[in-house]
Specification:
alpha+beta, 3-stranded mixed beta sheet, 3-stranded antiparallel beta sheet, 10 strands, about 30% helix, disordered N terminus, binds iron/sulfur cluster
């Protein structure tokens, strides 16, 4: 299983319709016969196994080890709220906003504004995640300071959080909603090597996140397709999740 998706926690198409004029690495036979909010849907999200939910106590926030690309609007929004974010950071974190982003901008049509920049990573104790570096916004508890700051102001926990952090391990590449296997492969708890931990599919674990991304109405189209084909997806998921035990 390899999508050859090289974007790490990237690619946003919030609120836009898209032309599918790019070559995708996702094989045609895996694409569901539906389009939602302008996106195609890779059936891999229905068949890839996943843990019950993202549990920081069990994974240590390993998915944050390499940071994230944020759309230029998300970048601006994070800086608007820099004082609130700094106020919840701990002594292990960099509190200078000038050091929060890598200073390089990429052009990528997968982002709403077509421009994105990466968050900086710094050396840190990754604890049970096993990583030795992490996003500047990752605190010593392995919580995201952007999320903590929004919640501390009484806002929704995702109010200021980058889209691809919310969505992970679901991502979007070339206008297709898919599973980010290239970034998941190093995650021992929930990634492709964590098969013994799976209890359901990536899709089932990430319904709230997907609805947040798509809108309720568009999400319901995905849900209807999933339910109509659920026996097929479940059979494939279970087959793929079998753990070989050597005696
Ligand atoms: S912005 Fe927050 S959720 Fe995203 S990679 Fe950084 S610490 Fe993790």
């Amino acid at each position: 299983m390899d999508n050859n998706i090289t974007k790490t926690l990237t690619a946003a198409h919030l609120g836009e319709e898209h032309q599918f004029d790019e070559e995708s690495d996702i094989p045609e036979h895996r694409l569901a016969p539906l389009t939602v909010k302008g996106f195609k849907v890779d059936e891999l999200i229905f068949t890839q196994g996943f843990v019950n939910y993202c549990d920081i106590d069990k994974c240590g926030g390993g998915c944050c080890h390499s940071g994230v690309y944020v759309d230029s609007k998300e970048y601006e929004n994070i800086l608007i709220h820099k004082d609130d974010i700094i106020s919840v950071m701990d002594e292990t974190q960099i509190k200078d906003p000038a050091q929060w982003f890598d200073g390089e901008w990429i052009e990528d049509a997968d982002f709403p504004t077509g421009r994105a920049t990466g968050t900086q990573v710094h050396d840190r104790d990754g604890g049970i995640s096993g990583f030795t570096e992490g996003c500047v916004f990752l605190d010593k508890r392995h919580f995201c300071s952007i999320q903590v700051a929004a919640a501390s102001k009484g806002l929704h926990r995702w109010a200021w959080k980058p889209t691809y952090c919310i969505m992970f391990p679901i991502t979007v590449t070339e206008a297709t909603i898919t599973y980010d296997d290239s970034h998941s492969v190093d995650l021992h708890y929930c990634g492709p090597n964590g098969a013994g931990n799976y209890v359901h599919s990536v899709y089932e674990a990430m319904k709230e996140e997907l609805q947040n991304f798509l809108s309720k109405e568009e999400f319901e189209k995905v849900e209807a397709y999933y339910q109509a084909n659920r026996p097929r997806f479940e059979a494939e998921r279970i087959k793929n999740s079998l753990v070989q035990i050597s005696l």
